[in-house]
């Protein structure tokens, strides 16, 4: 069974990765998002949509040498907002490093980094620019394009993908319906890169 999960906020990835790691051990992670989601707490809560990957690190659910976060940007409460991630060994690719370029070369490097071990894909729709996906709770300007999103997901073809999710879609915030349409297409693309799927 390979879970392909629709969220809901990013909190859902935490229990999913608990289950995935129980079967496969610590997994690599391709994480597309505007935010690192490695906060320690929010409004006093340790488990929320801004903390799942810190909880995963603490529980040993991730192979931290094989974690890549792409599209990270936005305001922060700290002068060095990516320090925690980099201290764990994550590769952080800020959105500005993606502007005006193809991400095919990046994904070539990511495939090499991930190797043949199990990998999980977690895609927060706010990784994309709100011009394309306004239907989300925490939009951040200057994000990725839909074409870059496809390059990232298609770039995972051939990896040992053991699960995926697409989170933070809030259709009520987008009267056009474009965010839901984009989310559905990204999920279809994830389905197409699962091991053994013929396209």
UniProtKB/TrEMBL annotation:
InterPro entries: Ureohydrolase, Ureohydrolase_dom_sf, Ureohydrolase_Mn_BS. SUPFAM superfamilies: Arginase/deacetylase (SSF52768). GO terms for molecular function: agmatinase activity; metal ion binding. GO terms for biological process: putrescine biosynthetic process from arginine, via agmatine. The keyword Metal-binding applies. The keyword Metal-binding applies. Pfam families: Arginase. Keywords: Hydrolase, Metal-binding. Belongs to the arginase family. Agmatinase subfamily. This is Agmatinase, mitochondrial.
């Amino acid at each position: 069974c390979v879970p392909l999960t629709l969220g809901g906020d990013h909190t859902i990835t935490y229990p999913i990765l608990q289950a995935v790691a129980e079967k496969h051990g610590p997994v690599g992670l391709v994480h597309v998002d505007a935010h690192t989601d490695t906060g320690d707490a929010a409004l006093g809560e340790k488990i929320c949509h801004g903390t799942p990957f810190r909880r995963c690190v603490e529980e040993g659910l991730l192979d931290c040498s094989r974690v890549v976060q792409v599209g990270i940007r936005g305001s922060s409460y700290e002068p060095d907002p990516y320090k925690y991630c980099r201290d764990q060994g994550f590769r952080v690719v800020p959105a500005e490093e993606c502007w005006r370029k193809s991400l095919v070369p990046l994904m070539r490097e990511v495939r090499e980094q991930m190797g043949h071990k199990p990998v999980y894909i977690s895609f927060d729709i706010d990784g994309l620019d709100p011009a394309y996906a306004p239907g989300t709770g925490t939009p951040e300007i200057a994000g990725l394009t839909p074409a870059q999103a496809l390059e990232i997901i298609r770039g995972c073809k051939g990896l040992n993908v053991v699960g995926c999710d697409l989170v933070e879609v809030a259709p009520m915030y987008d009267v056009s319906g474009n965010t839901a349409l984009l989310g559905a297409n990204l999920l279809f693309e994830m389905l197409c890169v699962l091991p053994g799927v013929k396209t």
